[in-house]
Amino acid sequence: MTCDRGTHGHESGGREGRCCGAAGGSRPGRGREGLIEPLVLVALTSGSAHGYDLIQSVETIAEGAVKADPGGLYRTLRRLEESGLVRSMWVEGDSGPQRREYAITSAGREALGWWQRHLSARAQVFQRIADAAGAVVSAGDKERS
To answer: Residue 132 and which of 22, 52, 63, 89 are 20 to 30 A apart at CA?
Structure first.
């Protein structure tokens, strides 16, 4: 059985169906905002963290290409938690109130595997487009010479 759209050649449900919004995850392909989910999952593989630390980790991992909006990050964390990809717990703050800390679950690690495959496939497509565009630009430069 294929995903809801039936054109991607993978199984529906579970992690493989995520491109069509199955399993409660975001839909890839929404620009930089669509990268927050895999960035958060990658960041949490280093250990549990609270929101502020995750914002810094996301921006570091993305080398500044993605700026994490705090509101968007917390919405993503809630969605990931509802999907069972992360879990949260309240911990005592060093100085001040309790803070919510997030950790990746085994399902989150599985989802990260899906993201790796998905992003690698997209990177190949982007490279083919860049190569084709480069060939056109080079041909145009030779014609003008």
So the answer is: 63
